[in-house]
Design goal:
The complex is a heterodimer. Chain A is about 40% helix and about 10% strand. Chain A is α/β, with parallel strands linked by helices. In chain A, strand 7, helix 8 and strand 8 form a beta-alpha-beta unit. Chain B is α/β, with parallel strands linked by helices. In chain B, the strands form three sheets. In chain B, strands 3-2-4-5-7-6-12 form a seven-stranded mixed β-sheet, with helices on both faces. Classes of the chains: A alpha/beta, B alpha/beta. At the A-B interface, helix 5 and helix 6 of A face helix 3, helix 5 and helix 6 of B.
């Protein structure tokens, strides 16, 4: 709910030109995002794509600092250096949103290798979309992860569109979960609109990674209710299709299941909603009040000080 | 102090760092069982095992990316690209990830890794295996770029690169692997400022990688046959580029010639010329000149390949023209 409200508000603020560049909202995909975060243990790490405001927030990044990042302010999660596509929250073991489609897949693979080398236990989860599924990095990394027995979940968040091109138009086969098989990697496809189902499946997949020291491919079928980015007129899909999917709103599905199980009392949902409203309102206030990054930060953190690093700006 | 070949000096540096730091691992195509396409990693698989000397599939972009991710996870990968041309397949990981991540995440993530690769012409490897991409790879901020020309520097600089917390691109020259040189017991630790490898008074010649050796040969001829005293400088690092040492030299010699195997447009020499022009314009008695590789892909035929690469005589002739005018 906090992510939903965050994204809705980010979209509104973008339209008011408070945010620059691109803004990719994850509305509709919250069940997959939250399901992953809820399943992660103390030694599990998450890498994401460019649509990852939700991932950062789900692992605990404060909404006010995430909003400040979108606004390009000093208090942003990465000091205004990265923006919407490059969130980062190490405390929650979210190691970044990455703007190059599929570019983070080798990073996650390498991170899993470091977990093995250091003997820390845990696994790496690499979330990417159906669009990224066709980058060469995926097949290269499935191969390496399998050959090297890496504990990694390739988590394919299938929202059915690579930007404006539907999966049917960008993929010869849309059974993405089967793509691990040629590399001897087990795969599975689940309903990504059901947060409890996602959490349970990711938990099981993580345990498979820990116990068997093997990679896993998990496809979560989901849908983004909004455009690819906030500047998308959505000429590539029918309104009716979107409306049909909206009937399967992940928040609604969760609420219904919880009510049935007697775990969501009357009025509680409204309470959560108004708490989220207040939090996001406060996040916008915080982001608005946060100053632009100091000009001195322009060249900061380009290099770690070392004997070899440039001593002055002239590199 | 002992004499060794460049490839053995590099091998020594790898072994020393792997012994010193358990977290150093090697990754690359055919670096283990095969011992490396140029035998730089020979024997290391046997010594350190397959877990630390990892033969990889031919997946350059993912190898480099996996190195970046592993470095983010606190280990120190040293990756070999079989040639500089193959590294072009990994440009996304090199530029968008390796060099960018520390800055993009505002210093919250570090990428301590080394990307070694041989380049340069002279072995008739043709248009896709013989280039010199120092200029391309030093263009992007965030990664350092070292280019040693002697066994002593190769050993010292590779060791320092592996210990460094920043990503380092490490350019080697195929033709220099067999060159012998004295390697001191205790390596230089860095920073690796540009090095005046021959003192002179009339002209400063800056050579990159193998061109340092040609510049030294040319300097001997210039002195012997033409009475011209050339100072030769090896920049050793293109990022950072220590132009202060070059500017200081030019303020004494008042003339500058740069020599590189890479292409002319936007080359290392262009960068050096720009800086010297801006910082030492009043010191110059002649226009700055550059000798570069020919502005064509590297041809295969031996005569054409040599024609495409700077030769010692080219350096002699150009230096004379700068110093004497005419010719």
């Amino acid at each position: 709910m906090r992510i939903r409200r965050f994204e809705e508000e980010a979209g509104r603020q973008y339209k008011r030109a408070k945010a620059g560049g691109f803004l990719h909202l994850g509305i509709g995909e919250e069940a997959t995002i939250v399901g992953i975060a809820e399943a992660m243990g103390e030694e599990d790490y998450l890498f994401g794509s460019y649509r990852t405001h939700g991932h950062a927030i789900a692992v605990g990044a404060p909404t006010n600092r995430a909003m400040a990042e979108i606004f390009g302010r000093a208090d942003g999660l990465v000091g205004g250096k990265g923006g919407s596509m490059h969130m980062y929250w190490k405390e929650g073991r979210f190691l970044g949103g990455y703007g190059i489609v599929g570019g983070h897949i080798p990073l996650a693979t390498g991170y899993a290798l470091s977990q093995v080398r250091r003997g820390t236990g845990g696994a790496t989860i690499c979330s990417f979309g159906d669009g990224a599924a066709n980058t060469g990095n995926v097949s290269e990394c499935l191969n390496m992860a399998s050959m090297w027995d890496l504990p990694i979940i390739f988590l394919l968040q299938n929202n059915r569109y690579g930007m404006g091109t539907s999966a049917e138009r960008h993929s010869a086969s849309t059974d993405f979960w089967e793509r691990g098989a040629p590399f001897d990697i087990k795969g599975e496809r689940i309903d990504g609109m059901n947060v409890l189902r996602v959490r349970e499946t990711v938990l099981a997949a993580l345990h498979y990674c820990y116990e068997h020291r093997r990679p896993y491919l998990l496809e979560c079928e989901t849908y983004r209710f909004e455009g690819h980015s906030a500047a998308d007129p959505e000429v590539y899909r029918e309104r009716a299709e979107v409306e049909e999917w909206k009937k399967r709103d992940p928040i609604h599905i969760w609420a219904e299941e919880m009510k049935e199980a007697g775990q969501l009392q009357e009025g509680r949902l409204e309470e959560i909603r108004s708490q989220a409203d207040a939090e996001i309102e406060e996040a916008v206030r915080f982001a608005d009040a946060s100053p632009q990054p100091a000009e001195s930060t322009l060249t900061e953190h380009l290099y770690v000080p070392s004997p070899l690093a440039p001593r002055k700006e002239k590199a | 102090m002992s004499e060794m070949r460049m490839r053995d000096a590099l091998n020594l540096a790898l072994r020393e760092e792997m012994e010193r730091d358990e977290s150093v691992i090697l990754m690359g195509e055919d670096i283990g069982v095969f011992g490396g396409a140029f035998k730089v990693t020979d024997g290391l698989l046997k010594e350190f095992g397959a877990e630390r000397v990892m033969d990889t599939p031919i997946s350059e972009n993912s190898i480099v990316g996996a190195g970046v991710g592993a470095a983010m996870g606190g280990i120190r990968p040293v990756i070999e690209m079989m040639t500089v041309n193959f590294a072009l397949l990994a440009m996304d990981q090199m530029v968008n990830h390796m060099a960018t991540i520390p800055y993009m995440f505002n210093g919250q993530s570090q990428v301590p890794m080394v990307l070694r690769m041989p380049g340069g012409g002279g072995h008739q490897l043709g248009p896709t295996h013989s280039h010199s991409f120092g200029a391309i790879f030093s263009h992007a901020p965030g990664a350092l770029l070292l280019c040693p020309s002697t066994p002593a520097d190769a050993r010292a600089m590779l060791g320092a690169a592996i210990r460094d917390p920043n990503p380092v691109i490490f350019l080697e020259h195929e033709t220099l692997y067999g060159d012998r040189g004295e390697v001191p017991e205790t390596p230089e630790e860095g920073p690796f400022a540009a090095k005046v490898v021959r003192a002179g008074e009339d002209i400063t010649i800056v050579g990159v990688l193998r061109m340092v050796h040609l510049a030294l040969e040319a300097a001997e001829i210039l002195q012997r046959d033409h009475g011209i005293s050339a100072e030769v400088i090896d920049p050793r690092s293109l990022r950072p580029l220590d132009s202060d040492t070059i500017v200081e030299s030019v303020s004494r010699t008042h003339r500058l010639l740069t020599v590189e195997e890479g292409w002319p447009k936007g080359g290392a020499g262009a960068e050096i010329a720009s800086r010297v022009g801006a910082e030492a314009f009043d010191e110059l008695d002649a226009p700055i000149e550059r000798i570069c590789g020919a502005d064509v892909p590297m041809p295969y035929a031996s005569n054409l390949e040599q024609l495409a690469m700077p030769q010692t005589e080219d350096i002699v002739d150009r230096a004379r023209r700068i110093c004497e005018g005419g010719i």
